[in-house]
Specification:
This protein has three helices and two strands; from the N terminus they run H-H-E-E-H. The chain is mainly alpha-helical. The chain has one domain. It has a two-stranded antiparallel ribbon with strand order 1-2. Strand 1 and strand 2 form a beta hairpin. Helix 1 packs antiparallel against helix 3.
């Protein structure tokens, strides 16, 4: 069960690593802003929050499954 959790975390980490590479970031690097917040900053913080929430939910879900097995 531990290897499955590790695999999920690795896949999610690789996905978010790709989202933070220069080619993707350059798409959002523009002079425009949303409510006074530059689009690049908004993109970075939004992806960062999604990353934290996704990792939290994966770890919490897996720990509940491990507790049920015991």
């Amino acid at each position: 069960m531990e290897t499955r959790k590790d695999q999920k975390l690795l896949i999610v980490s690789c996905l978010f690593l790709v989202l933070f590479t220069f080619p993707v970031l350059s798409i959002f690097n523009s002079e425009s802003s949303v409510n006074g917040i530059p689009v690049l900053y908004l993109y970075i913080f939004t992806i960062w929050i999604f990353f934290i929430i996704t990792i939290f939910r994966l770890i919490k879900k897996e720990s509940k499954e491990i507790e049920k097995d015991e």
